[in-house]
Design a protein that fits this description.
Elements lengths: L1 E2 L12 H14 L7 H16 L4 E5 L10 E5 L3 E7 L3 E6 L22 E6 L2 E2 L2 H16 L1 H4 L42 E2 L1 H10 L3 H16 L4 E5 L2 E6 L3 E8 L3 E6 L20 E6 L6 H13 L6
Antiparallel strand pairs: 1-7, 2-3, 3-4, 4-5, 5-6, 8-9, 9-10, 10-11, 11-12, 12-13
Helix pairs in contact: 2-3, 5-6, 6-7
């Protein structure tokens, strides 16, 4: 972390009337709408976070009078990755599991006493090593999606007077008939791996009707992108082209399967899912009763494979 060197101030002395005039002119020269340095800093770090992980979920939480009811920005991927808060003198980025993350660049400079969280305090004029920061974000996502992290669950609902769901055992993650752990939304927990085998393991573990959809998607990609590369990353199948990066991935959620094109804004027509915050990525959510447009999916796959992809 580096800090801009302060500029030398002029030593010329002025009387009270001159000082008042100078102050008035300075106020007129700076529009009231000039962005606050804290907002600019937080926005800059937000962009780095979303670039580091296109699957990141961004939300505003914990709205209360102390933050003008605007809430706190929270970035999550299978659990909270980090939060962003602005104070009078610093912008604070707190990593929920920071104490467990490697930090060779020593970006963490706050909340160093605890056993769980770590934070980065950024003061006015300071900059953060973008590459090192994005490495922290990726490490946090990897930690959240690791078997060790996902094995930790909340106490059983029975402790709060609620009956657990049928077939569920208190304190244990749900497993399918193959013994594969199903994470939030029924998404299979498959270890990171390259090649067709881990992708097929993921598809075989997809619950119910989603398994057949996974097979269809996989077949469409293979048929339309010769030599496609496959891998499982962050408990999702990824498909890519040598030298270009990943162009598509899909992920199981409770009621649908999300198919994400990392360069979706360049596809024609543009897939329907996406927001301003998702940058170039666009997606389509496929529900059980949807009319699956296979011809359109084939066209998108061919287009996406021809474009520069996402390289983590």
């Amino acid at each position: 972390m580096t800090k801009d060197r302060p500029r030398a101030k002029p030593t010329q002395q002025v009387d009270a009337s001159q000082a008042k005039k100078i102050k008035s002119e300075a106020q007129l020269a700076v529009p009231e709408t000039q962005p606050d340095w804290r907002a600019e800093t937080l926005d800059r770090m937000r962009k780095l976070i979303l670039q580091a992980d296109p699957e990141m979920i961004e939300e505003q939480k914990w709205k209360k009078p102390s933050n003008a009811m605007t809430g706190v920005p929270v970035w999550s991927h299978d659990g909270i990755v980090c939060t962003g808060e602005t104070y009078q003198n610093v912008v604070k980025l707190t990593f929920a599991k920071g104490a467990s993350l490697p930090d060779p660049a020593k970006l963490f400079n706050s909340s160093l006493e605890g056993n769980t969280r770590r934070a980065i305090d950024i003061k006015e004029g300071e900059s953060v090593d973008a590459r090192a920061f994005q490495a922290l974000v990726k490490a946090a996502v990897a930690f959240n999606t690791s078997p060790k992290a996902t094995a930790k669950v909340k106490p059983a609902a029975r402790a709060k007077g609620k009956a657990p769901k049928s077939g569920a055992q208190p304190g244990k993650l749900q497993k399918n008939e193959q013994g594969v752990v199903l994470l939030s939304g029924g998404n299979p927990q498959i270890a990171k791996g390259d090649g067709d085998a881990p992708v097929q393991a993921y598809i075989a573990a997809m619950p119910g009707w989603k398994r057949d959809l996974g097979k269809r998607l996989d077949a469409i990609i293979e048929q339309n992108v010769p030599g496609v590369l496959k891998a499982v990353r962050w408990n999702s199948p990824f498909y890519g082209v040598e030298g270009k990066g990943w162009f598509v991935s899909f992920h199981v959620l409770t009621r649908y399967v999300k198919v994400t094109f990392f360069a979706g804004m360049s596809l024609r027509p543009i897939p329907p899912g996406g927001t301003e915050k998702s940058k170039e990525a666009r997606w389509i959510d496929i529900y059980e009763d949807d009319q699956f447009d296979e011809a359109q999916m084939k066209t998108w796959m061919r287009q996406a494979a021809a474009l520069p992809g996402w390289i983590p």
